[in-house]
Amino acid sequence: MQTKCPIGTTARTGEICPESGVWKVVGSPSTTAPIAKGNTMPPYRGQAVTWQLIKYA
């Protein structure tokens, strides 16, 4: 059985998503997005940001 990344895990724009789930931009303005494991973490409003895992898919 594979272990999940803990809630609160962070990943930067351009990194590979380590866990499928709902991710939130750290800071303000913020947004949430469903991102699948293996996808590239997207920018937000054209900026590189840090995403934080808030909920499993």
Quick overview:
The chain is an all-beta fold and 57 residues long. Helices cover 0% and strands 33% of the residues. It has one domain.
What does this structure look like?
With 57 residues, the chain is mostly beta strands. The protein has one domain. Helix content is 0%, strand content 33%. It has no helices and 4 strands. The chain has strands spanning 10-12, 21-25, 32-35, 50-56. It has a 4-stranded antiparallel sheet with strand order 1-4-2-3, with no helix packed on it. A hairpin with a 6-residue loop joins strand 2 (21-25) and strand 3 (32-35). It starts with 9 loop residues before the first strand and ends with a strand.
What structural keywords apply?
single chain; mainly beta; globular; 57 residues; four-stranded antiparallel β-sheet
SSE blueprint:
Elements: E1 10-12, E2 21-25, E3 32-35, E4 50-56
Antiparallel strand pairs: 1-4, 2-3, 2-4
Question: Count of DSSP E strands?
Answer: 4
Low-confidence stretches: none
- Spell the H/E element sequence: EEEE
Helix/strand/pairing class, anyone? mainly beta
Helix content: under 10%
Total number of distinct structural domains: 1
State the helix count: 0
Strand order of the largest sheet: 1-4-2-3
Report mean pLDDT, rounded to a whole number: 96
Silhouette: globular
Oligomer: single chain
Distance from N terminus to C terminus (CA atoms, Å) equals 17 Å
Strand proportion = 25-35%
* Integer-rounded radius of gyration: 10 Å
Q: How would a crystallographer describe the biggest sheet? A: 4 strands, antiparallel
